[in-house]
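FORM 12-B: Structure-to-Sequence Request
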């Protein structure tokens, strides 16, 4: 009896010990990457598949690992940050972001890293996809006029950033040294109809947003993490107007997102769209469905997939909205197709709503004769720049505004009827109800940081474009209206309602 009990106890202990050993082994296997499995044989070699933003190379159809030859060249050169604003970018290849690189899980990436002889600084590259010291930072670090080679195995499928990590890394990233690299899983990603990539990044310029000319880097703003620009794909407007992303209704779309920062986490959102699938943080599995806004951490990535059934224009934003409307983080997705009113009706009716109000609406009674065009200051070219950096965010590239939200400047009766009132709008901002072309708007246009030259230029530009044909606005006009406002002689812009 005693013997049997001992036997049972020992057997139990063995079972428990065996189970613990088994669990430990399972846990360890779960953590180990495919790197500890047997390495795939490298067959042949080929140039890396790369494309310029926002395009993504087609899926890889290879069923074996290969040696991929990747050439990266760093350039320090002046590029356009916004219309009329330039900045000395440091780039992988020609532009920020650098090219999208697509490799297959198991590939050996032979990286040839060249620092152009015209450059002034040493640079390197850190591939987040490369599991080794600094992701290759030390292996690639090189002075201008030199080139280095190093190789790494792409063992872990997922979407990864690459960026320069030369000290001070924040500066190198802030100047544009980043891009995205996809390690496609062996079995491939689910097939979609269209793929694009979007990288959000910040620029810390001395001048305020939209201030023209060549802009220097501001260390002070960088330390405070207060960029003047937050942009998609390296420039204001890189995904707007004719550069918009385009798909058809019913097509499946995958967007590869990256955020090198250097400081701000992105709350990526497409106004009016829902992400059906999200690969959180750019990992290799779909971990969420039906997401409105996905977070892209600094130094990280994400992939989103969706199908859009209703045609129209959808706006890509960082949902931290002042970045979108005031710092450039805005793009467009144009969806073409036949309307699906059973899914989304559009506006079904509109009537006046008048429950009785104390507000006195002052009708604009006087028709102001157009003043002769005085050409001093405010050139149309300058005005065009002000428009495409500042006004465009709300009044839209075509000047048609956004229904119920931003009034049109195109063929605007409000704008064209009273030149001085338009100047007051820009000097003071505008709030309260206004009627433009028979539609009412009740929103706020903030007082914008504009010089007299900006105001004269922007108004001259909009009054002569978008189907408008009116007299220009001179610097003298702006000065006169400003003086009236200072003397309190003029009505504020708001109650002159334009009704
Ligand atoms: C942040 C968004 C925003 C920006 C930027 C902006 N506006 Fe506006 N604008 C508005 C809104 C909103 C209104 C209507 C305000 C209201 O409902 O009271 C408006 C009204 C106007 C009007 C009078 C109504 C009309 O359609 O004629 C003019 C003129 C105008 N804006 C010109 C400009 C110009 C020129 C610029 C660039 C220098 C500019 N706006 C930048 C939001 C903006
Ligand atoms: Cu660098």
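FORM 12-B RESPONSE
SEQUENCE OUT:
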């Amino acid at each position: 009896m005693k013997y049997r009990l001992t036997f049972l106890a020992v057997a139990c202990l063995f079972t428990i010990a065996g189970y613990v050993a088994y669990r430990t082994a399972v846990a360890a296997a779960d953590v180990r990457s495919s790197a500890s499995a047997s390495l795939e044989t490298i067959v042949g070699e080929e140039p890396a598949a790369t494309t310029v933003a926002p395009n993504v190379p087609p899926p890889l159809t290879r069923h074996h690992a290969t040696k991929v030859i990747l050439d990266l060249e760093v350039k320090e050169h002046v590029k356009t940050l916004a219309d009329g604003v330039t900045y000395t970018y440091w780039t992988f290849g020609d532009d920020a972001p650098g090219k999208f690189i697509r490799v297959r899980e198991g590939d050996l990436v032979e990286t040839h890293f060249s620092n152009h002889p015209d450059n002034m600084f040493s640079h390197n590259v850190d591939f987040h996809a490369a599991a080794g010291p600094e992701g290759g930072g030390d292996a690639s670090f090189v002075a201008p006029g030199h080139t280095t080679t190093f190789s790494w195995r792409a063992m872990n499928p997922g979407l990864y950033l690459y960026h320069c990590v030369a000290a001070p890394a924040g500066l190198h990233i802030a100047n544009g040294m980043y891009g995205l690299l996809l390690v496609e899983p062996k079995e491939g990603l689910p097939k979609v109809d269209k793929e694009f990539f979007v990288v959000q990044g910040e620029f810390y310029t001395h001048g305020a947003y939209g201030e023209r000319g060549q802009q220097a880097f501001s260390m002070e703003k960088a330390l405070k993490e207060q960029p003047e620009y937050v942009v998609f794909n390296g420039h204001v407007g890189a995904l707007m107007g004719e550069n918009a992303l385009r798909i058809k209704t019913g097509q499946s779309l995958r967007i590869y997102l990256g955020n090198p920062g250097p400081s701000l986490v992105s709350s990526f959102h497409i106004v009016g769209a829902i992400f059906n699938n999200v690969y959180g943080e750019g990992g290799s599995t779909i971990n969420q469905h039906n997401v409105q806004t996905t977070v892209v951490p600094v130094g990280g990535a994400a992939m989103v997939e969706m199908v859009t059934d209703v045609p129209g224009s959808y706006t890509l934003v960082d949902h931290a909205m002042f970045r979108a409307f005031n710092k450039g983080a805005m793009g467009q997705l144009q969806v073409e197709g036949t309307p699906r009113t059973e899914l989304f009706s559009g506006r079904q009716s509109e009537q006046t709503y008048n429950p009785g109000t104390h507000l006195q609406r002052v009708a604009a009674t006087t028709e102001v004769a157009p003043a002769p065009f005085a050409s001093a200051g405010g050139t149309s070219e300058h005005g065009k720049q002000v428009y495409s950096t500042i006004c465009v965010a709300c009044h839209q590239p075509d000047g048609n505004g956004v229904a119920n939200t931003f009034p049109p400047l195109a063929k605007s009766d409000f704008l064209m009827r009273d030149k001085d009132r338009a100047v007051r709008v820009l000097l003071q901002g505008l709030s309260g109800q206004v009627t433009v072309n028979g539609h009412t708007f009740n929103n706020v246009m903030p007082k914008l940081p504009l010089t007299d030259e900006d105001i004269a230029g922007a108004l001259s530009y909009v009054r002569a474009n978008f189907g408008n044909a009116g007299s220009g606005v001179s610097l003298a006009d702006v000065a006169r209206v400003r003086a009236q406002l200072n003397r309190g002689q003029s009505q504020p812009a708001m109650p002159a309602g334009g009704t």
